[in-house]
């Protein structure tokens, strides 16, 4: 039995329009942090509001520990909600804001419990200050402490870090993740920030046009995207077409290994860090292209290489040997991923035999 089980929820605000959420299903284990990530208007916030009880689905159900909560009002669901703008009371002190979440606790115990929660989030010294005297990251932790005060079964976080600057955002999300894990509470994060979803969550669901395109661990989704949307939304991706035969495909880059095995026309994804560059041979025939731009990123460099009529992105370590105008050979360092739109996939993940074939291809190339 799952801690939270979202079953086939659909929500349409206007009958003539596409559904805001279409047949979405996913689950959470106890103590798990799940992320809903996607562009604006994809349905992720609507999904969160349906779980909270602020919106009602046209169909589907939501189960918390095996019990349907679809018919319960928000205050009866045992679900906490951390809003994007924190929603702190400006006329209450920090501890007063936290104590607001303790309305069911005896008055004499409220302040003590409030101070304990502030200690949990590292703000015990700020108890008597007012919200406007705190930084954005501190306000976010006060909002979380207030939500934890009611002992929720689940916490929903709606773009909680979007109002913070880049440096503070990274620190705050690390702190909040640590706090959630220490409290052993399940949570759902909604965000449009791909890096945030990948680093903060145990599992991620990628939403597009109201539907969940793919659900899985961050590593799985990044390294094995199922659709072109997922490949391009979560980081950068080079897409190319080819004709597959088993573990390889014929493409404009030559014969390249693919995963999973497929047959016939395929659409493939290659991450920029999975493409290698080397100076072109003297004949210029070894799948060579021209560097048309170079982006120095400190520890590595992103090159845009024009090969035929197509531009490819490649991330490589900084060496200083390649510059704009250089003729380069381009080759895959890892197998290309077959996307779901095309191809008859035989396996979901590479096998030992496939890895051995890939090693043989690399060895043949080096010789």
Account of the protein in words:
The chain is of the alpha+beta class. It has two domains: 4-223, Rossmann fold (3-Layer(aba) Sandwich), CATH 3.40.50.300; 236-366, Nucleic acid-binding proteins (OB fold (Dihydrolipoamide Acetyltransferase, E2P), Beta Barrel), CATH 2.40.50. 26% of the residues lie in helices and 34% in strands. The strands form four sheets. Strands 6-7-8-3-9-10 form a six-stranded mixed β-sheet, sandwiched between helices. Helix 2 (94-100) packs parallel to helix 4 and helix 4 packs parallel to helix 5. It starts with a strand and ends with a helix.
Q: Please give the domain count.
A: 2
Sheet/helix structural class: alpha+beta
The CATH homologous superfamily of the largest domain corresponds to: P-loop containing nucleotide triphosphate hydrolases
Largest sheet: 6 strands, mixed
**What is the level 1 CATH name of the largest domain?**
Alpha Beta
User: What is the overall silhouette?
Assistant: globular
Q: Which residues sit in consecutive blocks of at least 5 with pLDDT less than 50?
A: 342-363
Provide the descriptors you would attach to this structure in a database record.
367 residues, alpha+beta, Rossmann fold, OB fold (Dihydrolipoamide Acetyltransferase, E2P), 2 domains, five-stranded antiparallel beta sheet
Summarize the structure.
With 367 residues, this protein is α+β, with helices and mostly antiparallel strands. The chain is built from nine helices and 18 strands.
Topology:
Layout: E1 4-11, E2 21-28, E3 33-37, H1 44-52, E4 59-64, E5 67-68, E6 79-82, H2 94-100, H3 107-120, H4 136-148, E7 154-158, H5 166-183, E8 186-191, H6 194-200, E9 203-208, E10 211-216, H7 218-223, H8 228-233, E11 238-251, E12 254-270, E13 275-279, E14 288-296, E15 300-307, E16 310-317, E17 327-332, E18 336-338, H9 352-366
Parallel strand pairs: 3-8, 3-9, 6-7, 7-8
Antiparallel strand pairs: 1-2, 1-4, 4-5, 9-10, 11-12, 13-17, 14-15, 14-17, 15-16
